[in-house]
Each structure stands twice: as C-alpha cells, then as structure tokens.
Amino acid sequence: MSFLTLDHVSHHYFSKESYTKALDNISMAVKEGEFISLLGPSGCGKSTLLSIIAGIIQQTEGTVSLQGKSTTESEMEIGYMLQQDYLFPWKTIIDNVLLGPKINGNKTDDLRKKALQLLKEVGLKDVEMKYPSELSGGMRQRVALVRTLINNPKILLLDEPFSALDYQTKLNLEDLVADLLKSYHKTAVLVTHDIGEAIAMSDRIFMMNANPGSIAKIYEVPIELRNEVPFLVRRHPKYQLIFDKIWDELESKESQQKVVEIPNE
Ligand SMILES: Nc1ncnc2c1ncn2[C@@H]1O[C@H](COP(=O)(O)OP(=O)(O)OP(=O)(O)O)[C@@H](O)[C@H]1O
C-alpha cells in the first residue's frame, strides 16, 4: 500500500465573478520515506495541491489518503513548512517550538528535552531563550523546521521553504533538511521553482502542466544522485543532463500557457 495516495483529484475555485479549474484528475502514489517534488510553471496548481494534501482545502473531486486515512482526519500527522517562518516574535525560541504540542494539550516537559536535542541537531545550540528577532533568516527557518518535527509528523509538506534565503544559506539548509528527513525516515513533498533544488533533494520529480494543473511527467532521479547529499548532487556528472532535460520541458510549458476561458453557466 502506498503511504500517500491521491486518486483522481480535481479542484475548481468558484466565486461570483470567476471560475478556475486549478487541478484536473491528479493521481499519485508516494512511498513511505520518499521525497518528491512538484515542479511546474507558475499557476499550475502546486500550492493548491499541497493545501489539499494538508487537508487545508477540500478537493472538488477525488480522494487523498495518508496510510489509508483521509488527510482531513490525519491533520495532526502532517507537518507544513512555508517560505516564511511565522514564528511569534514575542515568544522565545523554545516557546515557539513547543507551542503546537501545548495547544494540543500535550505535556511539554519531555518534549522540551526533545526540542533542545532537535535544535542542537540543526546547529542551534543555546538559542532557546532568544527571540526570533535575534536570529538570522536561515536560523529562523531551522527553528521552523524543529517546530514542524517536534510534532513527529508522518509527512512533511514543504512549500518553497528555502526561497526567501540567500543562496549559501539555502544550500546549507537543503543539506540539513535532507539529512534530518533521511535519518528520521520522513516522507516529504516539496513545492519548488528551483530545478536544481528538485534534482538535489528528490527521489522523484512530478512535472506539472498548467491550465488546468495536471501531472505531465514523472522524473525518477538516478539512485547514484539520491545517495549523495544535495550539495554534491549538483556536482555529479549526470546532474547537468537532468537539469537541461527538465529546463527544456519547463520552457516549452511556459511558452504554452493559455488564458482559461470562463464557461457559461
Ligand atoms: N483562492 C483562490 N481563488 C481563486 N483562484 C485561485 C485561488 N488560489 C489559487 N487560484 C488559482 O488556481 C490556479 C493554481 O494556483 P496555485 O497557487 O495553486 O499555483 P502554483 O503553481 O502554486 O503557483 P505559483 O508557482 O505561482 O506559486 C491559478 O490559476 C490561481 O490563480
């Protein structure tokens, strides 16, 4: 049985003024511990798809399940990491990390130890009593990662989590996230515009079409690249070949973007 299953998922946005068919008939099966990326032209529905997997929005058609359970029932088992860290500025780092478990009514004494361990694992020692404003963007994003992992989610949904960071910080964080997810055997879905990031981090890359959003192609990253840390994947002889192939595909999709017509009622 696959870990995350999407079966014929479609989604339409309706309002009085407009209608958008954002996703059309998406099916995919993600294995436990697998890292997949969603890549595609702007507006092809990547974030919509991630929100549906997260159970934040309900798809118009089709089913989404995590280990056989609907994702709306498994909300607590899903971790979400976004471009912005959304840390509360008036709370210390440790209080930010422990806020989720606290809201869920969990005792935080044991979790405090785990939080400090995770902070150490992401290279943040002795920051627990600091406030977010005292940390750099990359450090705050690492705190956001710890805040996600403290809930021990079964799956991590990553919506362009590195795109607001400078290039060097982004590469370092990619290595860190890949290493942590591997060591905790977490399944992950990454939305990105960065082809290099998708190749460096993923087992498989789902290339999407726009208007409406659908899966156009699935690229399986060769095993020898998957066994490397992301930074070294970018130096692998096969990396540029895969990059060029995906680049050409993406370029042709950008140029094919059409205006969607609003159907008559
Ligand atoms: N709340 C909404 N109401 C109406 N239409 C929406 C809404 N959110 C997204 N859309 C439309 O649905 C389509 C898919 O949007 P979505 O944000 O999922 O794409 P994306 O691939 O994540 O885009 P980008 O790469 O630019 O972030 C687009 O046509 C967008 O305009």
From TrEMBL:
Q: Spell out the molecular function terms from Gene Ontology.
A: ATP binding; ATP hydrolysis activity
- Which part of the chain is the ABC transporter domain? 4-235
Q: Which domain of life is it from?
A: Bacteria
Q: Which UniProt keywords apply?
A: ATP-binding, Nucleotide-binding, Transport
What Pfam family is a match, any one? ABC_tran
Query: What is this protein called in UniProt?
Result: NitT/TauT family transport system ATP-binding protein
